[in-house]
Write a structure and sequence with these properties.
- The protein is α/β, with parallel strands linked by helices and 396 residues long.
- Strands 1, 11, 14, 15, 16, 17, 18, 19 and 20 form a nine-stranded mixed beta sheet that branches.
- Strand 5, helix 5 and strand 6 form a beta-alpha-beta unit.
- Helix 1 packs across helix 3 and helix 7 runs parallel beside helix 8.
- The chain starts with 5 loop residues before the first strand and ends with a strand.
- The structure holds pyridoxal-5'-phosphate.
- The site of pyridoxal-5'-phosphate has 13 residues, from helix 9.
Amino acid sequence: MHRRPCWVEIDTRAFEHNYRLLAASVPAELLAVVKANAYGHGLALCGPAAIRAGARWLGVTTVEEGIEARALCPTAEILVISGPFPGQGQAAIKHRLTTVVWEPWHLAELQEAARLVGCGPQSVPIHLELETGMNRQGVAVAGLEALLKHLPADGPLKLDGLLTHPFAADEPDNLVTNEQLALVAQAIQLIHSAQLRPAWLNIGNSASILSGPVRNALLHSASNAGLNLMLRPGLALYGLSPEFSATVPNETPITALQAQLQPVLTWKTRVVSLRNLSPGQVVGYNGTFVATEPMRVALLAVGYADGLRRALSNRGSALIAGERAPIVGRISMDQTVVDVTDIPGVRVGDEAVLLGSQSSASSRQTISAEQHARLCETIPWEVFTSIAERVERVPV
Ligand SMILES: *Cc1c(COP(=O)(O)O)cnc(C)c1O
């Protein structure tokens, strides 16, 4: 059976290109963040693409996602970023997932699971998250020594990495990041005093790869501590750069890097039907759009249940025949109407692009996730992860 025409095309080669581009730009291990169904792009497509591009590490949110990633990528190292939940220890160990931990009960959960499974000493890797100012997850330096006492050398858990999250790497100065790195240095001293030797300093998102000063600070911190640096790009792998505050000094190599990122996702639907409107006729719920002149409008097979945000009503556009067709009236759950008055020759079945680029003989237009985000007062991350599961992910 043919499907309802609302799908996203995933350019896996663009994804691979982005990974290779970032990896070549910095002397560090790059963990590919493929959490939340690869930012809505499809884990089944992007997980294997990351491995093809040379990634050894994948980052997922949960043990559930980790199990999916393991089935797709048998040899990858897989990091569970949000930590284990109660009762997930055995599954994490069985599927060889490295979990992020910071609570004593995380350690107890994994230790008990390791005992039940019969793991030997130092056989279950963990990455310990350090709280460095974001106050989201992680153990504070003050609580570190007590937590490290739960990691005896003859126990099953192996401290493989120390992790923290630079939460202001897109800001104009390095003040916050430098404070975070000072805490990291203190933590590493305590860890070394406890005779623990983690391999990785696991830190950094897209912004910290694309901001020269931050990436240099991270490289220094890792080399001072004698640890290998692991960076964790997400958004940039999907072809977008985080927006830096306007006062961040532009560095030519970094700007060049940003310019070479390639968008991975194109969201498409088709024209379902067409009608003409006379002046005074309205469109959609509550008639928020009123035709003031004769118009031609097209119905598209997409709505807010697909993740096309209702805030785009009367504000966003779709691309048809390489031209912008403004959304008119309120976006419905499953349907959206666009104005095609100025686009000659539109026919039922024509492709419409909601996110991405479209060309015609005479023009090429792009609607970016940044544009959607701006119109909806949100961020591209939320635009991508809002695309519903029922929208098929198709590799191209
Ligand atoms: C999501 C996430 C990232 C990736 O962030 P981007 O800004 O998308 O590059 C990195 N680290 C952690 C801990 C995350 O949760």
